[in-house]
Specification:
Blueprint (H helix, E strand, L loop, with lengths): L1 H7 L9 H15 L5 E8 L2 E9 L6 E3 L2 E3 L2 E7 L10 H15 L4 E7 L5 H10 L3 E2 L7 E7 L9
Antiparallel strand pairs: 1-2, 2-5, 3-4, 6-8, 7-8
Length: 158
């Protein structure tokens, strides 16, 4: 758990009080597995944590974006700063895994925020766009809302 918390502590808006929340989320994931309200996925390579993604679900999460209700919030997807770039595709691999798992669990999609106050937000926006996340028309001056349907909910090609 300490390696997971070490990576999460690299979140640009990290605050000390997040640690207790993340510990609870990790404990809930251990106890309930995929049925946990707050999901946590860890990307490990050679038995070392390279990335962590967290999602929030439940009655407080649903958000209507551009007329559609989204029930899963991708809160964080962060790759250990020592392992970013270099063509390893850790971020892409973790995002693909999370979206596959959400589809397997019957989730139709997810939403996220790209906060403009964070250093590197433009790089983050480009990353999400390359991963086929779409900017919502209801984005704000302070952040960009993005959505993506899971493979299970995407319309069949004609």
């Amino acid at each position: 758990m300490s390696d997971v918390l070490r990576v999460l502590a690299q979140v640009p808006t990290w605050e000390e009080n997040n640690v207790d929340s993340w510990r609870r989320d990790l404990q809930e994931q251990e106890e309930h597995g995929d049925g946990a309200v707050h999901g946590v996925w860890v990307l490990e390579v050679a038995s070392a944590v390279r990335g962590v993604a967290t999602v929030k679900r439940g009655r407080r999460v649903p958000k209507t974006i551009d007329g559609r209700l989204w029930t899963v919030y991708l809160e964080y997807l962060i790759i250990d700063e020592d392992h970013r770039g270099g063509g390893r595709r850790y971020g892409a691999r973790l995002e693909e895994h999370v979206m596959r798992e959400l589809a397997r669990q019957g989730c139709s999609g997810a939403f996220l925020h790209v906060f403009k106050r964070d250093d590197g937000w433009q790089d983050a926006l480009e990353f999400w766009e390359r991963r086929a996340w779409e900017q919502a028309a209801s984005s704000q001056a302070t952040h960009i809302l993005m959505t993506k349907e899971t493979a299970a909910s995407a319309p069949e090609p004609s």
